[in-house]
Write a structure and sequence with these properties.
- The chain contains 3 helices and 12 strands.
- By secondary structure, it is of the alpha+beta class.
């Protein structure tokens, strides 16, 4: 019996075992942790690679898009250096939001995404960029090349979600988001996260 190449006898770790994508930093793979239908915050367990329940959402805010991370990326010093006021990256894989015209309700999937921009989020003094992308071959968004081509309301929904999804009653959130940036800056952030990953974990 022959197996396809590459063949994985065991499930690869979503962060370390999956390919970064077909043409990074312009086109990447995104491992999806959250869908627009989730009222619970799920997050990858860094040790096992399985999805862990992080917390039920305290507010009624729901993710406006698919939300996950780019495999084989790491937000370290290089990512932090690209954001004003950041002391470092947040030590996680690089987050990505993927817009899709058709509702996708299932998490723990891999999607191909074209990078169009991002939101520079500062969380507790650490760079926590949110890359914005569109689903490859999407019927509506497939020709989109830059964030400037998206309806502004979609970007504002993403901004609102990330400004509120960590709110705890009685406390001020230590989160700020600067002006959205376009594809060119987003690709710089992705390149920096790839270099940070290689330094932290090896090629």
């Amino acid at each position: 019996m022959t197996f396809p190449s590459p063949f994985y006898r065991w499930r690869p770790h979503p962060w370390h075992g999956l390919d970064i994508g077909p043409n990074p930093p312009a086109e990447v793979h995104a491992y999806i942790e959250l869908t627009p239908f989730d009222l619970v915050k799920y997050e990858i367990d860094k040790e096992t690679g399985y999805i862990r329940v992080d917390r039920p959402q305290r507010t009624s805010s729901q993710p406006p898009s698919l939300y996950g991370f780019i495999p084989r990326t790491y937000c370290g010093d290089r990512v932090g250096a690209l954001m004003d006021g950041a002391k470092s990256g947040d030590g996680d894989p690089l987050d990505i939001c993927v817009l899709s015209e058709r509702p996708i309700s299932r998490g723990e999937i891999i999607v191909g995404a074209r990078v169009v921009g991002g939101l520079p989020m500062l969380d507790g003094g650490e760079a926590d960029d949110k890359i914005i992308a569109v689903l490859l071959n999407d019927t509506v968004w497939r020709d989109t090349q830059d964030i400037s081509e998206l309806p502004p309301v979609l970007v504002e929904r993403l901004r609102h979600y990330f400004l509120t999804y960590k709110l705890i009653p009685g406390r001020e959130a230590d989160v700020s988001i600067g002006p959205a940036y376009g594809r060119e800056q987003a690709e710089k952030v992705i390149r920096a996260s790839i270099d940070d990953y290689e330094e932290e974990f090896g090629g």
